[in-house]
């Protein structure tokens, strides 16, 4: 059952393909903001996945994040998402990311519960129209 306070944490070791120079979001060999955000979104997705129907999933709708400090190759990062508000299909999360030295990013994330088949059918129709 979905309820405020649900939380999930994901952990990852920073590898070459997570670095800003590799992703193209910068030219330094530090964790890219898009890679940090992806781990935060993954934590939010897994936070609620066990509490919705198998035919459903969640999709990201909005994210507002501050990337507070750099993390280098080989470090371990964790991202935690906590469900803080439920409005029908709209879910609001508090998200944060840390490395071994502490907080590296924080923000808020909105996801929507969708039916997998209906969502993909709409996506395919939209793709064909372009």
Short account of what is shown:
This protein has 130 residues and is of the alpha+beta class. It has 3 helices and 5 strands. A 5-stranded antiparallel sheet has the order 1-3-4-5-2.
What is the string of helix and strand elements? EHHEEEEH
Which strands sit side by side, in order, in the main sheet? 1-3-4-5-2
CA-based gyration radius: 16 Å
Please give the share of residues in helix: 25-40%
Number of strands: 5
Average pLDDT taken over every residue? 96
Low-confidence stretches: none
**SS-based structural class?**
alpha+beta
Question: Based on CA inertia axes, which overall geometry fits?
Answer: globular
| Alpha-carbon distance between the two ends | 39 Å
Report strand %. 35-45%
Total helices: the number is 3
In oligomeric terms, what are we looking at?
single chain
Task: Specify the biggest β-sheet.
Answer: 5 strands, antiparallel
């Amino acid at each position: 059952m979905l309820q405020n306070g649900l939380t999930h944490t994901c952990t990852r070791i920073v590898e070459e393909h997570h670095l800003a120079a590799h992703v193209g979001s910068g030219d330094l060999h530090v964790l890219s903001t898009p890679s940090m955000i992806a781990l935060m979104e993954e934590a939010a997705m897994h936070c609620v996945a066990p509490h919705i129907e198998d035919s459903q999933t969640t999709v990201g709708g909005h994210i507002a994040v501050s990337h507070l400090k750099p993390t280098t190759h080989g470090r371990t990062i964790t991202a935690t998402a906590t469900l803080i508000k439920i409005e029908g299909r709209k879910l609001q999360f508090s998200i944060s990311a840390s490395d071994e030295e502490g907080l590296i990013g924080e923000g808020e994330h909105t996801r929507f519960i969708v039916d997998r088949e209906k969502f993909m059918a709409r996506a395919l129709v939209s793709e064909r129209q372009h």
